[in-house]
Target: DMT family transporter
Amino acid sequence: MKKVAPLFIIAATLLWAATGVVTRYIATTGLTTVEIAALRVVSSAIIFFIILLLFYPDRLKIKVRDLGWFAGIGLGSLFLNNLAYSETVQRASLSMAVILLYTSPFFVTIMARIFFKEKITTRKLFALTLAFIGCLFVVGVSKAGLEEGIVLTILIGMCAGFGFGLYSILGSVLLKRYDSLTVAFYAILFAALGTVVLTKPAAVVTTLMASPSKLPLCIIGSFVTVALPYICYSLALKYMEAGKASIISSFEVVAASLYGAVLFGERLQLKNILGIVLVLTALILLQLKPKERGNVKEN
Model:
């Protein structure tokens, strides 16, 4: 299973990358950015619950003493990530929001070292740097929207990155006690509870009912881009280091760029292609086995 764990991360990134496609479709209903985020998380939690109740009811059982951990991963990770990312998109360009989001591997690498004693090897640092630079080239960087409140915007964007990265840390702890389905479900459930507080559910339902034909795809698309990727990511975390998993997740930027080119005719410039190559190089580098010199391995 360890050998295929990176493939589950890639699968998660391919699904996460489709978020833009789904979000654009949901936006045609007239929902705001925050309302779209709420719809995606809440509908995913409901569908996820029904599936578990019908086919895996035992996965719904958790110990009361662990509620704090699940609240932490749901509110501190998913909820914070969604809220901060939505706010960053409104304050700055989408490219800048994406770059700030993908500061997450840096947070994960540091936290994994502190809490799990994961080694920060030369190989990992090099891959981390390559992946981040690759993301810069893939999406480009625009300063649009940063003329005012630049410091606050950057801090909010980094909160999105921290929230995204926190899932790898808290998830690694919970996955030692629970199945990946359980961890993913309760994380989404607590995130859903948090988003409901920030929106007016009645207003969201009223807006959606004005476009009933779009509702099925809105709900299915939300589940596919929220619940399924977190299930894949959680499963992979059981078998690999949090730091490596976070770096591999950078492939989402590449996938999103390719979706844009194929589905919306967005042109890829030379710098974008170079960025894709750098991210792929980083992912390959992480999968190479370190050479051994005598009895001493690479540090």
